[in-house]
Amino acid sequence: MLNPKNKKRFLLMSVMVLIFSMALLGCSSESVENEQSESNTESDNMLTFAWPRDIGEVNPHIYNPSQLFAQSMVYEPLVSYQDGGELKPHLAESWEISEDGKEYLFHIRQDVKFTDGTSFNAEIVKKNFDAILANVDLHSWLGFISKIDQTEVIDEYTFKLTLTESYYPTIQELAVVRPVRFLGEAGFPQDGDTSKGIEKPVGTGPWVLDEYKVDEFAVFKRNEDYWGELPTIEKIKVKVIPDAETRVLAFEKGDLDLVYGEGVISIDSFKQLESTGSYGSSISEPVATRQLVMNTNKEQLSDVRVRQALHYGFNKKAMVEGVTSGLEEKADYILPTNFPYTSNVEATTVDYNVEKAKQLLDEAGWKLPKGKNIREKDGKPLEIELMYNSAESIQKTMAETLQSEWTGIGVKLNIVGVELTTQVERFKANEFDMNFFSNYGAPYDPHTFVNIVATEGFGFREAISAYSNKEELLNQIAEVKQTTDENERQELYTEILGSLQEQGAIVPVSYIKKIAVYQKNVSNFTFPANRDEHPFTGISVKK
Question: Is the pLDDT of residue 255 over 90?
Answer without folding.
Answer: yes
